[in-house]
Amino acid sequence: MRIAVIDKDKCNRNKCSFECNTFCPPVRSGKEDTVVLDESNKSVIDEVLCIGCGICVKRCPFKAIEVVNLPEMKGSPIHKYGSNGFRVFNFPTPSKGKVVGLIGPNGIGKTTILKILTNQIKPNLGGENASDKEIINGFKGTETQKYFTELYSSILKISFKPQYVDDIPKVFKGKVRALLKKAGDECRLSDVCEKLGISNVLNSDVSELSGGELQKVAIAATLVKNADYYFFDEPMSYLDVNERLKVSNIIKELSENGKGVVVIEHDLISLDYLIDSLHILYGKKSVYGIVSKQIKAKNGINSYLKGFLREENVRFRNSEIKFAQRKALKKQFGNSVIEWGELEKNYSKFKLLINPGKIRAEEVIGVVGPNATGKTTFMNILAGKIKASKNGLNSKLKISYKPQYLTQSEETVFDFLKKNCDTASDEFLTARRKLGFDSIMEKKVSELSGGELQIINITACIAREEDIYLLDEPSAYLDVEQRVNISRLVQSVLKLNGKTVVIIDHDLLFITYVSDSIIVFSGEPSVGGVSNGPFSVDDGMNNFLKGLKITFRKDPETNRPRANKLGSVKDKEQKRKGDYFVL
After folding, report:
1. Residue 340 — φ and ψ, nearest 5°?
2. I want to staple 240 with a disulfide (CB 3.0 to 4.6 A). Which of 63, 218, 371, 474 is the partner?
3. What is the β-pairing status of strands 65-69 and 260-264?
4. Residue-wise pLDDT tens digits, 387-406
5. How large a percentage of the chain has pLDDT more than 70?
6. Are 56 and 46 in contact (CB under 8 A)?
7. What DSSP string runs through 186-244?
């Protein structure tokens, strides 16, 4: 499939001689519709008539045109779900002594690949079924052939962490210790739990655990097995920043000890820090997915953001995901919509101190900090769901709240949205356009994936006539593109109604991309927490990361933040200067 991409921001018909049309061979031979102008006076190239000669690419004075080939349905699929079902083309290469990442949109085949690698699904090579021998021969001459030979001979030992940790209490009733003993080697249990910081919940019932605790228990259940290959499906959901880097280091230790590791993750900072190499998955959601060749970590993530695989000459997205330099951003805010003095909330075993602050109209406030330090309690105080113990907050503002933990029901998505928001509002129509959930409107809420459930709850929160919108961990289970779309949706809603948005999240790339200001929480988890701010994004992140003793640098190619290795030259240099967050 040939595609032509034109950068509409660069294309300027008023300052060129229409070279893309003038020098186009098909146009000159009479096929005048190959290159035309649209209603906005921008060039449009007909990809069917285009012959892919590349003359327009070279002739365009603004370098606004790219013509590339996208190899759709190339060869037989590795696996196909029925005659007209979803299919996956190409396959990743798991390797011992390496952490290999898989990245791509939801619904593109990543979890299918993990299930094939862990022998939960037998690939059918595009037919009804395939024998072990046919599968092994299908990868002849590759490292993957050896992997499947050993997998189907029961030589390999496999350990797998599933995506949805919320389901653990539904399938296991009892104590955490009993779950981990059942999962693997008891002699490894103590060391693994100590590394993950969950020794204190071993005697707790699984049903009592928070999302972050469930995630760490699921990771522990994977690590207590003595396996040759370890597979992790979205291990960072619900974990705070410090926990994400800690888990990353634990997973990296596996590869350093000669184990093979494959990870699916949408948090680009964690993925970048964790992996050695990467496979990008692209295609069309629920239709087909294509696996790229293996790429080095940094190059792979930058290629993913650009939407272009240079090594394979494939453009899989029409636009880049760009991160603007914050110093270049100037935004005017409205008047203060809510102010608070010093607040306290005291429980029997937890104390929260909220220092004075305010939130302005047309402002996005990001809230960062360790788990169990009071961020959600702060949200609930703002939302009026709980009252402060000291100097209560007297606000008559109307507040819309999306909680961290989402519930399911048997109603359809259409009925859910109609009941919970104004489906005729501009905000709803904007969310519908940017998040693209038309295809699931008739599905039951109970049938939705984690990402789909997140999207409809964000929409229900945003598409109400309120003064402040509170979103608690909206990035959970969303892919990179969806997180960017949520960010753009938030900014669009502010332009429409001039209201305010407050967001708690642990994905630092997402929170710095969407926020205008930052509130920082610190303290000892489950004992006490303190809030400070709002600060500017740079000052807030610097304050936050200084407390964690973690430094971030800017990637010069994409402007995205990248975590420095602890103790590296760059890490020491930035700490010496007091620059913990450089963007």
Report:
1. -140, 145
2. 371
3. unpaired
4. 888 776 767 788 899 998 89
5. 96
6. no
7. HHHHHHHHHHHT-GGGTTSBGGG--HHHHHHHHHHHHHTS--SEEEEESTTTT--HHHH
As a whole number, mean pLDDT of residues 221-247 equals 96
Assess contact for 34 and 24: CB atoms under 8 A: yes
| Interhelix angle 426-435/480-497, nearest 10 degrees | 160
Closest CA relative to residue 459, chosen from 484, 436, 481: 436
Phi-psi bin for 284: left (phi > 0), alpha (psi -120 to 50), beta? beta
Q: Measured in whole angstroms, how far is the alpha carbon of residue 34 from the centre of its chain?
A: 38
In tens, the pLDDT along 144-155 reads 999 999 999 999
Please compute, for residue 457, the number of CA atoms within 13 A of its CA located in the half-sphere on the CB side: 27
- Tell me the C-alpha to C-alpha distance, in Å, between residue 140 and each of 262, 474, 559: 21, 43, 41
- pLDDT, one tens digit per residue, over 311-346 is 899 889 988 988 765 554 567 788 888 889 999 999
Of 275, 277, 259, the C-alpha closest to 267 is 275
Q: How would you class 516 by CB atoms within 10 Å of its CB: exposed for 0-12, middle for 13-18, buried for 19 or more?
A: buried
Residue reference for tokens 């390999």 = 156
pTM: 0.83
The CA-based angle 493-499-502, given to 5 degrees, is 90
Locate 115 and state its tokens: 């299930």
Q: Residue 261 corresponds to which tokens in the numbers above?
A: 């590791």
pLDDT at 82: 67
Cα–Cα distance measured from residue 157 to residue 229, given in angstroms and rounded to the nearest whole number: 7
Supply φ then ψ for residue 56, to 5 degrees.
Answer: -65, -35
- Name the 3-class secondary structure at 21: helix
Contacts 24+ apart (CB under 8 A), 530-535: 530/352, 530/353, 530/354, 530/355, 530/373, 531/352, 531/353, 531/354, 531/355, 531/357, 531/369, 531/374, 531/378, 532/355, 533/355, 533/357, 534/357, 534/358, 534/359, 534/365
Dist. CA 373–CA 361, nearest whole Å: 26
- Distance (Å, rounded) from C-alpha 572 to C-alpha 568? 6
Average pLDDT, the chain: 91
Residue that has been written with the tokens 């602050």 in this structure: 357
Number of C-alpha atoms within 13 angstroms, CB side, residue 397? 25
Using the structure block, give the residue that is written with the tokens 């600060």. 535
- Tell me: the pLDDT tens digits for 359-381? 999 999 999 999 999 998 998 88
* Burial (0-12, 13-18, 19+ Cβ within 10 Å), 236: buried
How is 37-84 classified by DSSP, letter by letter? Answer: E-TTS-EEE-TTT-----HHHHH-TT--EEEEE--TT-S--SEESSTT
Q: How far is Cα 233 from Cα 399, in angstroms, rounded to an integer? A: 34
- For the segment 409-430, the average pLDDT, to the nearest whole number, is 95
DSSP string, 447-500: G--HHHHHHHHHHHHHSS--SEEEEESTTTT--HHHHHHHHHHHHHHHHHH--E
- Residue 406 gets which letter from DSSP? P
Interhelix angle 176-183/186-196, rounded to 10 degrees, is 120
Q: How far apart are CA 76 and CA 476, in angstroms?
A: 34
